[in-house]
Predict the structure.
Amino acid sequence: MTRHLEATIETFPIAGVFTISRGSKTQAEVVTCQITEDGVTGRGECVPYRRYGETTEGVLAEIEAMKIPLRQGLDRATLQQEMKPGAARNAIDCALWDLEAKAGGRRVADLIGLPRPMPFDTAYTLSLATPQAMGEQARRNASRPLLKIKLGTEDDESRLRAVRESAPKARIIVDANEGWTEANLVFHLALAAELGVSLIEQPLPAGKDRMLAKIARPVPVCADESVHSTGDLRSLVDRYDAVNIKLDKTGGLTEAIRMKTEARRVGFKVMIGCMVGTSLAMAPAVLLAADADYADLDGPLLLAHDRENGLRYEGSSVFPPEPALWG
């Protein structure tokens, strides 16, 4: 009995333009992995991220390089040793989970030993734009319980005030995407506290964030670019209050489960996050997000169209995946 692997690059248009402090994009490029055994196929999706030195072509090649090991019986445990954390391992790992579940007629939640996932609220992301445009985005989405706003400009104060004025009741996560500096960090933290921000994500560049250990943090601070897998956690306990676990960083659901458990053990709050991808990329993360402190799995809501059998969203509520999608 052999396994057959296929991997493809797919493109999904974004609804409008998605902008963060590092640039803009109008489409999501993803790599989809399918592993078939005895007529049963498991799927996984990953989103290569240039910030971490990944390209779609490079990730595709990494996945395809595992064809022979998979044919020879490579399992998830060995996969963690054979591939580094990142997008390519994520696609294969999630495809193997899906394959095992479908082959056994069970759900992945049951295989992990989790209760069946229930609907939960995700953050909804407001793209970086002018203060006026971000205020208008916030006004249109003011009924959502949790907004995540992209910042990291020379005038974040005007943008944050415009969003808060337009969405006075929403909880707000600020994501600076490494865009703040030691010179303006204290000011921005005080501003966030004044405006009732719930969480600040990655204010300083990864590797240049030691200042966070030396100052008061009136608003909890969450690591994103500074944290990838379980081994990173202990080095961050003095600087951060929460960690953003993304499967494209951890290299799949297997490592994400381990990382979430360890993050809780050492005292971090947990966000389950995503890159901009389709419901297939979100589905494995949904299993971890229902009891997380923060969920940020709105990728499909930012697309012009999603995959068939995609996740069901009602406002900001995310429902667990159906087997036709994953798991």
